[in-house]
Design goal:
The chain has 206 residues and is an all-alpha fold. 73% of the residues lie in helices and 0% in strands.
Length: 206
Amino acid sequence: MNTQIILTKILTLPGIILGLSLHEFAHALVSDRLGDPTPRRQGRLTINPMAHIDWLGFIALLFVGFGWGKPVMIDPGYYKNRRAGEFLTAIAGVTMNLILAVILSFPTKAVLSLYYASGSALAENTFYILYYAVMINVCLMIFNLIPVPPLDGWGILTQLFDLQKYSWWYKMYQYGQWILLILIFTNVTDLILGPAVSAIMRLLGL
């Protein structure tokens, strides 16, 4: 691994830690606000990365381009409206990634202008840290919206269309992880992520 690749990996670390941690924190926060004490009891109602990082998912995001955090355990039985509560909790993570990407896009563009004006190495590295943070959050959002268990997209789709009433839902949930692995290793996820991430980055002006 050459020096440039190592530097790139180092510059992506803040974005990976931020994206994974706040994604899972958002799930925990929404479930807590809806009356579920489970995330709080398990120490997940924090922005501390150590509470949310799944090291295998962290390494996968660092080296492969997709990854995941430690799933937040919830108990929908506490929700006043179970279906609405599960929908809001499921969509919370990807919403957080979108918010982070939008917010971080502004300083990213500002630092890029500064780099063009000064040409300094500090401005360049700061730009890439911010740029990768935006891109990683966009990647996390799109990847998690894929409607395959155990990703958030499956939970969102389930609650939107009340899919649990169908018998095939349970089979899909049971084998979802294997289906997802097949999609990953056959590069189907790349076909989804590539164009979608590029389009959103363009919308953000990056």
